[in-house]
Amino acid sequence: MISKNGIVSVYGFLLGLSILFVWLLLRNSDLLDTYVDPAVVNPLHLFIVYAAIANVLVRVVNRGTTYKVCAQALFLGLAMAAGLLISIQAPASWKPFGWYICVMAIFHYSEFLSIAVCNPKTLTSSSFMLDHSIAYGVAATTSWLEYLLWHYFLRDMKTIHEISYFGLLLCAFGEALRKGAIWTARDNFTHLVQQEKAQTHTLVTHGVYSWFRHPSYVGWFYWSIGTQIVMINPVCVVAYALASWKFFKDRIYYEEITLLNFFGEDYISYQEKVGIGLPFIRGFVVTRDKQ
């Protein structure tokens, strides 16, 4: 069952997304012609005004952690709306950036909502993963800068939308695999590597865990590369692949040590049956003594 803050996040996300309906109303309603000229409705100005009013409303209604949750959900709803508007209204060379924004908004909001349903006791305002790490922020900023540079010097490259479509498919695969891992593991899934085994902690080997030992990492790996293919960022495609591979190689090695401590022989048997799913990563493998 979804937690209280999960419900609050739904309200915040929908409030942000609702700017699309406000924009369509101002553009198409004959009733407003007396007060607003639809031809001069500027989406950027509308976003600024709407976001300011919505933030004030969220701040007045909510306090503490609830406010942090609702504010981040509102931001992601506004981002989703902005991505959709760019995808529909902007010139062809900007559409990939709009698709990228939508992909990012869906990933981060669904991350929070999945935890709110599957493992609410671990839910915090950080479960949106927006403040994942400094490196994550630097990587995102770098990808935006690359997009702008290519757009300035070689704009036509950003109109090869077939490349972006492949990236969207890769993002959809990665997103589905990661969320499948969360929903399969449920209260066994956490964003942090656990140092101590909880009483309810069990070894999950069914569903997507029968395909890969770490499906959430496999999903995130391919999703991150997909975001750069969507934006047609050749440099960041390579950089993201290398950086993600290194991060997950170290993370998986450390996590498998803890899983072996938790589950012992059961995890060794699981390792023998199911691979990790990421290229050239073996994890921490215990070799059985052959008699």
Automatic annotation (TrEMBL):
GO BP term (any one): methylation
Predominant place of localization: endoplasmic reticulum
Keywords noted in UniProt: Endoplasmic reticulum, Membrane, Methyltransferase, S-adenosyl-L-methionine, Transferase, Transmembrane, Transmembrane helix
GO cellular component: endoplasmic reticulum membrane
Pfam families per the UniProt record, alphabetical: ICMT (PF04140)
Top EC class for this record: transferase
Record keyword Cell cycle present: no
GO molecular function: protein C-terminal S-isoprenylcysteine carboxyl O-methyltransferase activity
Keyword Magnesium tagged: no
Cell compartment(s), UniProt: Endoplasmic reticulum membrane; Membrane
Segments crossing the lipid bilayer: 7-24, 44-61, 73-91, 97-118, 130-150, 220-243
Enzyme Commission numbers on file: 2.1.1.100
Catalytic activity: [protein]-C-terminal S-[(2E,6E)-farnesyl]-L-cysteine + S-adenosyl-L-methionine = [protein]-C-terminal S-[(2E,6E)-farnesyl]-L-cysteine methyl ester + S-adenosyl-L-homocysteine
Membrane topology field: Multi-pass membrane protein
The protein's role, per its UniProt record: Catalyzes the post-translational methylation of isoprenylated C-terminal cysteine residues.
Recorded family membership: Belongs to the class VI-like SAM-binding methyltransferase superfamily. Isoprenylcysteine carboxyl methyltransferase family.
Protein's name according to its UniProt entry: Protein-S-isoprenylcysteine O-methyltransferase
Highest classification ranks of the organism: Eukaryota, Metazoa, Ecdysozoa, Arthropoda, Hexapoda
